[in-house]
Amino acid sequence: MTVNDDSFTNWKNREKIAESMIPVIGKLHRERDVTILLHSRSLVNKSVVSILKTHRFARQIDGAELSVTETLPFLQALTTLDLGPSQIDLGMLAAAYAADDRGLSVEEFTAAAVSGATGENKIERGEGRDVVLYGFGRIGRLVARLLIEKTGSGNGLRLRAIVVRGGGEADLVKRASLLRRDSIHGQFQGTITVDEATSTIIANGNAIKVIYANDPSEVDYTAYGIKDAILIDNTGKWRDREGLSKHLRPGVEKVVLTAPGKGDVPNIVHGVNHDTIKPDEQILSCASCTTNAIVPPLKAMADEYGVLRGHVETVHSFTNDQNLLDNYHSADRRGRSAPLNMVMTETGAASAVAKALPDLKAPISGSSIRVPVPDVSIAILSLRLGRETSREEVLDYLREVSLTSPLKRQIDFTTAPDAVSSDFIGSRHASIVDAGATKVDGDNAILYLWYDNEFGYSCQVVRVVQYVSGVEYPTYPAPAV
Questions:
Q1: What pLDDT, in 10s, does the model give residues 266-323?
Q2: How far apart are alpha carbons 265 and 424 in whole angstroms?
Q3: Are 170 and 184 in contact (CB under 8 A)?
Q4: Which of 173, 253, 268, 359 has the largest CB neighbor count within 10 A?
């Protein structure tokens, strides 16, 4: 048998194992609200090839690919346990088991490692939490996709309604079509039908009422059977407490804004300051996509090296706020053609850092340039550090942060020498450190941070909503602090 034959046989064997994992992963998710991860990447509803590619990602940890033959025994061990709602990382289990010297079997080790999610310790499954989307633009539709994807057993977040202004004939059909197909993010994973008689979109079995209203005051959500809902405002029309309070109508308990909040509205970056949200807080903001991209790595660098000052320059994809062709716009430069020009503009991300990282006293300045790409941006974060270091030390540190720290869902890491913006479409991380572009000279460091300003940000929004709704379940084994 040739080397090629050996490689092909090995691949087919791994495909067979990955196929056997899919129904187990799906059953745990549907019946127990258990999400199976591999180094913070979800394996729920993934194909055979996606599962194998995710295992290959483990090369970043110790230079060797993690095999499904190594993780399957841990997955099998989980099926024998009385698990409650949780997230369980097979990659972390495998790595921790390899470093353990107690001589335990896989079954014994797994039971001990996830004991916080079993027996008397497990979280009881709730009834689910209603969610309403106010507005259905780029972020709204991506958040809708994520909410539908994460419905699972129906005991988590449930997208119950979308509120929009009437758009005329066939409005419902057109909105459903925009949810079904996206020029950047591809096809919706599942089926979508429309019931025009009841003004309902049915997506993967989820009945989503489309409510037409010109103002929040026109809606009584209890009339649609909605109660204690979290409303996600992705219009950006209201950004202060007074304006956002208009959404606190019958049936709505909390309001989450997908834009930087003004005044005393808390700006939340999940992974950094989400645990500061007060239980009785009814209005909060998820800040901006750029704030979410820079704050996690900024925190990581400040924790390890100290930061004396910084500047962020964002090279940002154009957005719907700009004009396709030159036309009047209230802003000075955004009226110029977005797909034909680089357009200098302002960014509030630097000033928003103070809200998310109040203990960071370093001054952070910022500016932005919009460029002719439809999605994925890059933030160039230039820092004066509190001590001298080396490029190798910074990269080793950030790589470890991306893999094992509490920020691993926010920070990703790439060593690809030919990486370009389109490679990061669909990234679920708030930002991705480009190792090849990183520069360090003494106490000066420049980080290049890619981010999908649409999908990665939407993932951060959903994480905040999960947290405030009480369905952000703990991860096992617990990440290192």
A1: 999 999 999 999 999 999 999 999 999 999 999 999 999 999 999 999 999 999 989 9
A2: 31
A3: no
A4: 268
Q: Compute the distance between CA of residue 393 and CA of residue 253 in angstroms, rounded to an integer.
A: 46
Cβ atoms of 308 and 334 within 8 Å: the answer is no
Handedness of CA 395, 352, 324, 236 (dihedral sign): positive
Whole-angstrom distance, CA of residue 180 vs CA of residue 194: 11
Cβ atoms within 10 A of the Cβ of 257, count?
A: 30
Q: What is the set of domains in the chain, with CATH numbers?
A: 3-121 (no CATH), 129-259 (3.40.50.720), 289-453 (3.30.360.10)
**Alpha helical stretches, state H, 200-332:** 241-244, 289-305
> Which run of H or of E encompasses 458?
helix 455-469
Residue from 312, 304, 322, 339 nearest 431 by CA:
312
What are 371's two structure tokens?
A: 């460029």
Q: 185: which 2 tokens?
A: 């993010």
pLDDT tens digits, one per residue of 452-479: 999 999 999 999 999 998 877 889 987 6
- Give whole-number Cα distances, 139 to 174, 322, 358, 416, 462, in Å: 17, 16, 27, 28, 11
Q: Could you read off the pLDDT of 222-239 as tens digits, one per residue?
A: 999 999 999 999 998 999
Residues carrying an active site annotation: 289
Structure pTM? 0.91
Closest CA to 355 of 407, 306, 284: 284
- Is 120 exposed, middle or buried, given 0-12, 13-18 or 19+ CB atoms closer than 10 A? exposed
